[in-house]
Every structure is written in C-alpha cells, then in structure tokens.
Amino acid sequence: MANLSRYLHKSIVFRLLRASFTKFYNLITCGRIMNRLSKDIYEIDTLLFYDISSTFTNIGTLIVFIIMTGFCFSLRVLPIAIVYLIFSTFISIYFLRAKRQVVRIGNITITIIQLFLA
Predict the structure, then answer these.
(1) Residue 20, Cβ neighbours under 10 Å: how many?
(2) The pLDDT value given to residue 112
(3) Is the pTM of this model over 0.70?
(4) What pLDDT is recorded for position 30?
(5) Between helices 78-117 and 48-73, what is the axis angle to 10°?
(6) Per-residue pLDDT tens for 63-101?
(7) What is the C-alpha separation between 97 and 61, in angstroms, rounded?
(8) CA 79 to chain centre
(9) Could you state, in order of their start, the residue ranges of all structural domains in the chain?
(10) Where on the phi/psi map is residue 11: left (φ > 0), alpha (ψ -120 to 50), or beta?
(11) Are 77 and 70 in contact (CB under 8 A)?
C-alpha cells in the first residue's frame, strides 16, 4: 500500500507542477490542494487496507458458510447459498456507490461552510 500511495502522490504532484498557473492556481487555493492530497493519501494508506481486509474476511466467511451448509443440509441448500452470494454482491455494490455519493456531498457541504467561515 505504501508504494501505491507514493505513486499516487508523485503523479499528482507532477501534474500539479505542470498545471497552468492562470487557469488552475488562480481558481483553487493552496489549502484546498493540500487538503485533497492529504485526504487521498490517508484513504489509500488506511481505509483501502481496511476495505480489502473486510472483503477477504467476508469471502472467507461465505466459503465456510457454503461448505458447512453443504455438509449439514446436503446439497439442496447450495442453490440458496449461491443466490445469497449473488444478492449480497449486488447489494454491497449498490451501497458502496451510495456511500461514495454521501461522502462527496458531505465534503462539498464542509467546503462551503469552511469558505463561509474563512
């Protein structure tokens, strides 16, 4: 994960240094740029690892659930487990998109409040 955050930081800084001064830096303050850089690096270093770990834990739990179901209730329950897997995948994708939208709206709202108080 450290290499990923370093690569992201280098590429962002490279593009920021090559950005047009009149079009970009006159419109966006340095504080907003630094806040965005630190937030992106924080998310990659901490939250991405937690999300990947949680995903692997859920997959392992599901595999154990399918195996135990197969042993305990024979193979008649296996189609239910497959339907559960498909349904839970679609639900998690849907709520992940919704979470991204809520975080984006929250960040926009906080930015507007910070601009008002500044």
Answers:
(1) 8
(2) 67
(3) no
(4) 75
(5) 160
(6) 888 788 777 776 677 787 788 888 888 888 888 888 888
(7) 23
(8) 31
(9) 2-117
(10) alpha
(11) yes
